[in-house]
Amino acid sequence: MGRLTVLALRAVLVLLLTGSVLVQAVMVPLLAIDLRGMDADIEYLRAPLLSVIVLGTAAVEVVLMCVWRLVTMVRRGTVFSHAAFQYVHVVIGAVVAAACLLFGLAVLLAPGEAVAPGVVLLVGGAALAVLGVALVVLVLRMLLAQAVERDVAATRMQAELDEVI
Fold first, then answer.
1. Other Cβ atoms closer than 10 A to 30
2. Is the pLDDT of residue 5 over 80?
């Protein structure tokens, strides 16, 4: 990965992380104020909705930090090692947690007629899409495992060849 690519990716990661912190620090309190005037029949959704937003944003921040560490490993040439797996595992866990949060929100929105069924289906579909992202990352983890295995084998063969020479 080239230096310019790493710098561009890090700039995007910094912007996304800054935006997520602003959402948690500014937008969530403003949303909490706006939701005070909710109808009494959907007042029970206020706390879970705010919780899902805060925890979902935290999951995004965790993913961003892990991607930062993985990019650092790529830049150093150490990404094909067992140390990379811990970051990939955290990413998978954070994405699955975000999917569970969305699914839980869909379950909370489902009873009654305060929220349209289409909105509940959209939130459920978003949860399914986020879970699909976790599965894609899991497949990429399997590819990383194969690459690490081949890198270890190549290093071993190179050492054996060095002994012969």
1. 9
2. yes
